Amino acid sequence: MADTNLYNVAFILSEVVMESRLTELEIRFTEQEAAIESLSDTVHRQEQELEMMRLMVEQLKERIKSLANTPLAAQSEEAPPPHY
């Protein structure tokens, strides 16, 4: 009878330990899911920002090209201001 009671106590403790481990794993899984979702959102936002920056660089390139074609004299070729 004592062996049966000891076995029952060990079995109950084993179940408690397993339940505790399962709960801990579920908590860790939930935290990792949240972290992955947060990282995914960050990557998506950064992709959008990067695309916006690419467009801005292209616009700036075009603007520089258009300014390079303007008929302005180099600074060394320009006459000094009248107050000199």
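^ that was protein a. below is b, sequence first then the tokens
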Amino acid sequence: MKPGVRSKQLPAEIAGSLVYGAPYETAEGATVITVTRIGGMLRPTARPVGVFAIHDGKTSWTPAVDGTRIAMLGELIGLLSAVIATLAVLRRPPWPDLSRGALRDRRRRE
């Protein structure tokens, strides 16, 4: 498969935001083509998407994994769960109110 054939098969809205790198030939005879996505509203940034590798006429796709992004998502979820749990406890604690004023009010109601 030629490198240009794959890019023609992509939909128009995806093909406009992807940038394909120059083909690179390795010592083993494989051709490697990098793929990045251009995005960002305030400041355009390039984010790696993956790599096409062509070896012996077979094409393989290897996606790029951003470990920092995954770690930040985990930290954000942990922080949000801690804030929600804190707000739930502060708003209505799970234990009964045992202050002297609350006990006195409870005895008056009974």
